[in-house]
Amino acid sequence: MKQRTALITGSSSGIGLAAAKYLVQQGWKVYATARNAENLKDLESMGAFTYALDVTLQETIDAVVNRIQEENGHLDAVINNAGFGLFGVFEYISDDMIQKQLETNVLGLARVIRTTLPLLRQSEDGRIVNISSIAGIVSLPLGAWYSVSKFAVEAISDSLRMELASQHIKVISIQPGPVASNFGQVTRKKMVIPEPDGVYDTVIKNAMNFFNRDFQKKERAKPEEVAQLIYRALTAKKPKTRYRITTTARFMVFIKWLLPDKWLDAIFIKQVKLK
Ligand SMILES: NC(=O)c1ccc[n+]([C@@H]2O[C@H](COP(=O)([O-])OP(=O)(O)OC[C@H]3O[C@@H](n4cnc5c(N)ncnc54)[C@H](OP(=O)(O)O)[C@@H]3O)[C@@H](O)[C@H]2O)c1
C-alpha cells in the first residue's frame, strides 16, 4: 500500500508529539512541526521530517507546504493540533490576550487548512483532523475564551465537512477531556487571576479546586491514547464526525444533552460551590 503522508502542527509536546510518533511507527511519512524545530529532534531521529511552523505566521506555513509540494506532491492528512488555553476571570481578560488565543486556536487552524487544501485535493483520501476539546461543547466558568476558540473549531469542522464533501476530503473533530500534557502548565502560566478583592475570590478558589481535583488528577487521558484515537479517525473507512475521549468528556456531553441549561447551571454552581 502507498505510504500515507501527514502534516501535524504543535508536535513538540503532548498530543502532537504522541500523534507524530504513533504515525511514524505505523509507517506514515510525517511532517512534524512546532514553533521551534530544535524541539523536534527526537521525532527527527525516529524518521519524521521536522520543520519550524508557527500557525500565527503565514510565511512559515507556506514554507513547509511548499516543501511538501516539492517532495511529495500531495498530503493525505492534516492534524490541526497547535493550541493553548486562555483561562481566567472574563472581566480581566484584555483584547490583546483574546486576540492571541483566537490567533492561534482559530485563525492558525484556518490558515493551515486554507494553505494545505490544494495538496489534500491531490490525495485519494484526504482528511483534516481538528483537535478540538470538550470545551468546544461545554463552556465552564473561567474558560469562556478557550471555549470560544473551540466552539469556533467545531463550527469550522461542521461547515467544512459539507463544503468539502464533493472533493472527497473528510473533516473530523477530536474532543478530548483532560489530557496529561504541558497544557495545564502553559494554562496556569497564562491564567488571568486578579488580586483577591472579595468579588471573584470564591469563584476562583472553588473553580480552580474543582479543575485541579476533578479534571486534572482523576482521569486524564495519556497523549498516546489520543494519538491512537487520531489514528482511528485517519484510517476508519467511514470515520465519525467527532471522536471523544475520557469519561469526563462523554459525561459532560450526555448531561448537556439531557438537562435544561438552568438545571445544569444549578448543579454546577452547587457542586463547585460558586456561590
Ligand atoms: N491537554 C488537555 O487537557 C487538552 C484537552 C482538550 C483539547 N486539547 C487540545 O489539544 C491540543 C494540543 O494540546 P496538548 O494538550 O498537547 O498541550 P501541549 O503539550 O501544551 O502542546 C501544545 C502544542 O501546541 C504548540 N503551539 C502552541 N502555539 C503554537 C503556535 N502559535 N504555532 C505552532 N504551534 C503552537 C506547542 O508548541 P511550541 O510551544 O513548542 O511551539 C505544543 O507543541 C490543543 O489544541 C489543545 O487545545 C488539550
Key features of this structure:
51% helix, seven-stranded parallel beta sheet, alpha/beta, 275 residues, globular
Overall structural domain count = 1
**What structural class is derived from the secondary structure elements?**
alpha/beta
Fraction of residues in helix: 40-55%
What is the CATH first-level class name?
Alpha Beta
Spatial order of the strands forming the largest sheet: 3-2-1-4-5-6-7
Distance from first to last alpha carbon: 59 Å
Radius of gyration equals: 19 Å
Quaternary state, please? single chain
Report mean pLDDT, rounded to a whole number: 96
Q: Can you tell me the overall shape?
A: globular
Report the count of strand segments. Answer: 7
Per the CATH scheme, the topology name is Rossmann fold
Would you list the SSEs in sequence order as H and E?
Answer: EHEHEHEHEHEHHHEHH
- Which ligands are bound? NADP nicotinamide-adenine-dinucleotide phosphate
Largest sheet: 7 strands, parallel
What is the H level of CATH, i.e. the homologous superfamily? NAD(P)-binding Rossmann-like Domain
Tell me what portion of residues adopts beta-strand conformation: 5-15%
